[in-house]
Design brief:
Elements lengths: L2 H8 L1 E3 L5 H11 L5 E5 H7 L1 H8 L4 E7 L3 H11 L6 E5 L4 H16 L5 E5 L7 H7 L1
Parallel strand pairs: 1-2, 2-3, 3-4, 4-5
Helix pairs in contact: 5-6
Length: about 140
């Protein structure tokens, strides 16, 4: 692999634009020039799983949903998402060890069936500054 391809493979493009049509146009324009396309919660809720499949035609998808709920709910949500076989799905680690394990079990079972999804834990939201974190404890 050459250096340029290595850089491209590590580039994640956030599809944080106002509409699904704009996001899809951006993904198509950058197809082959980015390693992955990030679909966030707002876009996923507005456009749905079919939209993710369309973006996947342009390249791998990272679902940045930051799932955070009781363990059983997160497990079932992961099972509902995994047929899309995204490259990454995020969970919010403040859901605790049992929730993290529930998500990991769903992903592990999916990978054993040939899926490629990986789990990424988000510990702190980037919108929180030191003052906000101090107030949270």
């Amino acid at each position: 692999m050459n250096v340029a391809q290595s850089i491209i493979d590590r580039l994640v493009v956030a599809l944080d634009v106002p509409t699904g049509a704009e996001a899809l146009a951006l993904a198509r324009t950058l197809s082959g020039r980015a390693g992955m396309f990030k679909v966030g919660l707002e876009l996923f809720c507005a456009e749905g799983p079919g939209f993710v499949r369309e973006v996947q035609k342009a390249g791998p998808v990272f679902l940045d949903l930051k799932l955070h709920d009781i363990p059983n709910t997160v497990h079932r949500a992961m099972e509902a998402l995994l047929p899309l076989d995204p490259s990454l799905v995020t969970i919010h680690t403040q859901g605790g060890p049992a929730m993290i394990e529930a998500a990991a079990q769903a992903v592990k079972a999916h990978r054993q069936r040939g899926g490629r999804t990986r789990l990424l834990g988000v510990t702190v939201l980037t919108s929180l500054d030191r003052e906000a974190l101090a107030r949270l404890g």
